[in-house]
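Lab notebook: predicted structure, single chain.

Context: the supervisor wants predicted structures on file for every construct in the current expression panel, including those that have not yet been purified. This is the next one on the list. No modifications to the sequence; it matches the entry in the shared construct table.
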Amino acid sequence: MRVLLTGAAGFIGHHVVSHLLNNTHWDLTIIDRLDISGNLNRLAEVGAAKNPRVKFQFHDLRAPFNDLLIKQLGFHDYIIHMAAATHVDRSIENPMEFVLDNVVATCNILDLARKTGCEQFLHFGTDEVLGPAPPCVKFKEYDRYNSSSPYSATKAGAEELAVAYANTYKLPVTIVHVMNVIGYRQHPEKFLPMTISKILRGQQIKIHGSADLKDAGTRCYIDARDVASAILLLLSKHALGKYNIVAERETSNLELAEWVAHSLNEPLNYQIVDANSMRPGHDLRYSMDGDLMRTKFGWTPSSGIRSRVHEIVTWTLANSQWLL
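Prediction complete. Output recorded below exactly as produced.
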């Protein structure tokens, strides 16, 4: 089997690469432009940089694939599209950048899949296309889009393009919704590594919360290694359609910060701030229903999220080059 992965030098992407190398005999072609989130050191640390099963191709997905590059790449059984611009704040400052990175780029890789063919195209999506979840509501795979930011709107647009290519060109498409992934080698701007850094420095952490400052925002944090195992399962089962990849429980941002402080054996200095006034487009609560993955395939995360947070904190202390 030959697999083409976009964004594989990114945080989640390199975990998928590592999982495929360790659990299959597949050959991997990696496409990345190595921007703010791409880092070849991730691939080096998981043994992919010099692995004979891995081929790296530099390409900016905002540009179409020319005929020579299409010929050089050839046919791939699976195409996994993970490349995306993901930071909500930056999307608010510069929406067009996200249109190019998330919509135009997705159209270009879908066109490549249409021209070369593939057995399965897996589009890596986000829960944020579904918007903020009301109390007690868990969104299912086909619930209506309700984007709160340019980031989520462009991811919704990319997802709809994938659906359109499935309907128009009969491209075999799988779409996954994933929420708040954590793990080793995450970009230091993200909440977990940022929290580790600030606690170690004795700095105050701002916890996004409700307008009355009584409740912290909540997420279903999930380890990148669990996401990678779910992706391999969906490819192995040739499962088309949409699937939510969800952690075993919902966790507040404050609770996560408390776990980090406990693992570091340091005090937690925090302030709950009104999320929406501080950052328009920020959703207080995200929540998805993961029953389809459980009932159809028996898939659940391999361990509890609190133990995973402790593992990540411990690993990060020993690998502080991944912190600012």
